[in-house]
Amino acid sequence: MGVARYIRDEKDAIKEVIYQSGIRVKPVYGPQDLEEVGFDYGSDLGDPGEFPFTRSLHPQGYRSRAWTTRQYTGFGTPRETNERFRYMIAHGQTGLNVAFDLPTQMGLDSDDPQAEGEVGRVGMAVDSLRDFEIAFEGIPFDRIGSGLTINANASVMLAMYQAVAEKFGYKKESISATPQNDILKEMIGRGAWIFPVEPAVRLVGDTIEYAMKELPRCNPVSICGYHIRESGATPVQEIACAFEIARSYIENVTARGIEPGAFVGRFSFNFNVYGNLWEQVAKFRAARKLWARMLREEYGITEKKKLFLRGLFGGGGSGMTKQQPENNIMRGAYYALAAALGGAQTTALCSFDEAYTIPTPRAALLSLRTLEMLMDEIGLRDTVDPLAGSYFIETLTKQMEDKIRAEMDRIRAMGGMIQAVATGAIQREVARQAYEFEKALQNKEAIKVGVNKYTEGDEPEVELHAYNEAWAEKQIAALKELRRTRDNREVGRTLKQLEQVTRDGKNVMPALVECCRAYATVGEMTGVFREVFGRWQEPSLF
Amino acid sequence: MADKKIRILIAKPDLDGHDRGAKVVALALRDAGMEVIYSGLHQSIDQILTTAMQEAVDVIGLSIMTGGHLTICRKLFARMKEEGLDHVHVVVGGVIPKQDVPKLEEMGARGVFPGGTPFSEIVAGIQALFEPETV
Asked: What CATH number labels A68-110+123-364+399-412?
């Protein structure tokens, strides 16, 4: 859940404050602290918009442009999801972040026996291009970009996104999509993996290479410290793991003879905001600096825009509590404040009912309003990086930076991220952290309001999103109809071609786009990969 | 059962990959002296039951976060009956709305521990299944 540990004396005075990252916070900070950590304005901060971008990617921060809001949205069939997309856009949302149901994320068609009970439950069900045609109907692709929260078969969804955009008359060069496409984090937390590590990373590499050549406005990967943290990692581990994962993807693509400068500028990140306010702000500032430094010093990239740590800072699901769920409205507002003070470029907020299930429209709208309030009403657009120069924040940012760097070194000493994931070393550490944190919560060293302090008896009833089993029936009926009416010879031909390029080690993306255009299903396309690659065997953790 | 360790299979059924809770509970039960086997992700009901038989566990602990707990448990209990596994206790954890707790118990769950249940309660709840009944 992510709050600091507080050691108190018998009079409730706080004696020790220990952040999740292990940093001990002093009661007072002053100029001598900056001196002690060797703080230097030029090299540690630089002006906003200047290397190393600690303060902001842009010279004027939110003055020139407010953050993009992208609430995670999707449920039922594409029809229900399309209605919710339009609802959110009509209420001021400026981007989309598409939630897919588990069968889609696992590459199963809606009528697969393993999909039973899950169709349209935690996200929208997608079987073919026909579903994207419905889901994105009336969405201005040239103005609204979409995050596609899918990983193991993100290549399939990116291909489908291109196919639907072209079908709607947009040029592929004009569309902006961000498939999540971070399979290594999926193996550490969140768990929607299918294929073994090596071919799974190859698919990530294929999408990066393809986007670089064909989809210049797409961000082919969104590396998610977010879910690693949701799984129990500290904020330091969250950033360190993300950057080492990024290194793995960079190396996969450079091994194809491509210069990092040709693609790394399109990488994006997804980081978490829950927990202690100051620790999160320092984390985001340190992360921007470290990423720019890593790319410049280790990969020789100098062009400013390619050094930007771009991404979504938001969510905070693990911070939300089932107990006293309305508290999550306020909690979310503080998380949003952390994201804004940390200079988030894009954001989203978990809704107050999300400890239970996916949000109702009212809850989703409250989240959006929370984000809008910060930008339009409370003053977060007034001046860039308002906490800069604070003795405490600058000291903490330096400390976070040092810790993240040390953690990155440690992961590399383990043989790198791919190795650490394959052996389960990282997963074991993250599970251990989660356990330790849970213990701190249960013995009240860490406090969650409404959970282990200021508790009340029965929880108030809140209106919840209800799953409708009729969605699955509708989706399956539409899928059966599609299989009957499409040109099945063309489907067979394109799938055969996909299999050939997959086996030959060629880039799978052009073949996937053709499969999508022929209305091949997600299950069929992913099935080709399953056939060729097999299934990942999780390392034993206990 | 006093001198025999309780053997429990912590299992993640079906497609969901959110396993933080399952792993944390696995570690807590192990610290409480139980022998814990963790199934790993994406397990079908049959795979879970096969593991349960091979490992000769006393308890199956299901962790379900997606809202699919009623469907999953209905399937599980039906298959357990067919396999003659009625002697294995089943407990359920995860995102379980309050109104579903009696429904799960009616199906045969011997304990329901929604997210946030203290470790001590989970441990006591499982241990209680093996205490001789007092008359």
From this structure: 3.20.20.240
